[in-house]
Amino acid sequence: MARLTSQLPMVERYDLTTKAWEEVAPMAEARYAHAVAVLEGKLYAVGGYDGGGVLSSVERYDPALDAWEAVAPMAVERFAPGVAVLDDKLYAVGGDNDDDGHLSSVERYDPAANAWEAVAPMATARAFPFAPGVAVLDGKLYAVGGSGGGALSSVERYDPALNAWEAVAPMAGRRIAFGVAVLEGKLYAVGGLNDEDGFLSSVERYDLATNAWEAVAPMVTARLNFGVASLRG
């Protein structure tokens, strides 16, 4: 599959006090289409592509030391995986690689053991060119939309106590390259792209109590491949 060649090792950090960006220690490996997450006060860079191949490697940044260190690699190389932290463990969900194509497999990293383990795979592969939306709600992991040979509307939920995925209500529309976030106990799917509508400004919200999605006010501007986060003052 065709890859871009825009991978970089450099990292920048925003200082809330000085209101300025500063360069910090670079990663050991240049990466793009990797995923990042924070676990136990450290920043993880997971998988991606280094210009020569898809990566299974994982690095961890310690802000107290301004240094990156390699941790145990994943069992599977993953381009554009979804990642999230649940119960103090890091999950890598789906993605893509040259050997297996679209991936339904899921791995979980335990920082205490410095080891990854395979957990139950999703029913649907969710992968390149755009990662699935992954988020944690009420102690369970959600994999939302993504690409599975085309844009998906389906949603799956992982229960770590059962080590099992189950289908929940699908979104009204199919989405790739969109953002997900949790706010006030509900899961939001924001913007993205699909074949029918092109770039999307629409937003849907999932209610766990009713197992249903509802449309909420759209954004002013259609967006894809962007970041979404919730912030409460």
How many beta-strand segments? 20
Q: Number of folding domains? A: 1
Order of helices and strands: EEEEEEEEEEEEEEEEEEEE
Mean pLDDT: 93
- Biggest sheet: strand arrangement: 3-4-5-6
Structural class estimated from helices and strands: mainly beta
Q: Taking Cα atoms only, what radius of gyration do you get, to the nearest Å? A: 17 Å
Q: How much helix is in the residues?
A: under 10%
Put simply, the count of helices is 0
By CATH, the architecture is named 6 Propeller
Strand coverage percent: 35-45%
Distance between the termini: 44 Å
CATH superfamily, by name, is Kelch-type beta propeller
As residue ranges, the low-confidence spans are: none
Largest sheet: 4 strands, antiparallel
How would you describe the overall organization of this protein?
- The chain has a single domain, classed as Neuraminidase (6 Propeller), CATH 2.120.10.80.
- The radius of gyration is 17 Å and the shape is globular.
- A four-stranded antiparallel sheet has the order 3-4-5-6, with no helix packed on it.
- The protein is built from no helices and 20 strands.
- The chain has strands spanning 11-15, 20-24, 35-39, 42-46, 58-62, 67-71, 82-86, 89-93, 96-97, 101-102, 106-110, 115-119, 133-137, 140-144, 155-159, 164-168, 179-183, 186-194, 198-207, 212-216.
- With 233 residues, it is mainly beta.
- Helix content is 0%, strand content 44%.
